[in-house]
Amino acid sequence: MPHTPGSSSRAIRIDRAWGTTAQRGIGMLVAAVALALCVAGGAITSAALSGRPTTVDEALYRAIAGFRAPWLEAPSLALNQLGGGSIALFVVPAIAAVALLVTRGVLAALVVLPLRPITQWAVESLKAIFERPRPPHREIAVSLSAYPSGHSAVAASLIVVLALLVRHRWFTVFGVVYVVAMGYSRLYLNVHWFTDTLGGTALGVAIGLVVWAVVGSIRSLLGRRRA
User: Fold this and answer.
1) What is the pLDDT of residues 107-151, one digit of tens each?
2) Alpha-carbon distance 2 to 143, whole Å?
3) Would you say 147 and 227 are in contact if contact means Cβ atoms under 8 Å apart?
4) Angstrom distance (rounded) from CA 101 to CA 109
5) How buried is 227 (Cβ within 10 angstroms: 0-12 exposed, 13-18 middle, 19+ buried)?
6) What are the φ and ψ backbone dihedral angles of 103, each rounded to 5 degrees?
7) Taking Cα atoms as reference points, which of 123, 118, 85 lies closest to residue 212?
8) pLDDT in tens, 173-219
9) What single-letter DSSP state applies at residue 47?
């Protein structure tokens, strides 16, 4: 059956979304660096600092404490719900999967569904290893230790995969703003130190890149075998 111009252009967009072999290789290299930075950051805060905040952590903690405004409360609480719990586990992946199903095909839609469980497992494993205390005077109830930030990791892993699959400048800009806003909300609610959010973001970037590169490589391999 011949391809119509519309279906042909959609196929091109789908192929482009998964990148070339070289691009996936670069993605894996960046993922390795990001993961190493995350683990190194946890090791430094746990071993060298015994869980104490860094100078930058303390400076930002004091700065945010001195700049608390009512209009920041609601967005921070909204991001807390958006990045954790059932909304992050079911609602956000479902919306992303439907959007990708329409624009980038079935495989892209399926890729985003396991991202949250994978990221959550990695976060909880590192939290158990490093056991860093959270900041004092927390605005909401939280459990587990501080490093790395789970909300930052979940946000970064999803945005990285979506940005690679969508490949539009506007979405990349939106994604960066979203990840930064998520990190700031964790500081504003006093549930994480700044370095926790950096570690979580690095971990999320690593997971997103690995998932995208591995699935893309499998897709490419299967395509060559069918050909």
Assistant:
1) 999 999 989 999 999 999 999 999 999 998 888 888 889 999 999
2) 57
3) no
4) 5
5) exposed
6) -100, -30
7) 118
8) 999 999 999 999 999 999 999 999 999 999 999 999 999 999 999 99
9) I
- Looking only at Cα atoms, what is the longest distance across the chain? 66
Q: What is the DSSP string of 156-184?
A: HHHHHHHHHHH--HHHHHHHHHHHHHHHH
Name the CA dihedral angle for 51, 56, 59, 65, rounded to a multiple of 10 degrees. Answer: -70
Angstrom distance (rounded) from CA 210 to CA 74: 34
How confident is the model at residue 5, as a pLDDT? 52
Residue 90 structure tokens: 């079911």
Predicted TM-score (pTM) of this structure: 0.92
What single string gives the DSSP state of each residue in 191-210?
Answer: SS-HHHHHHHHHHHHHHHHH
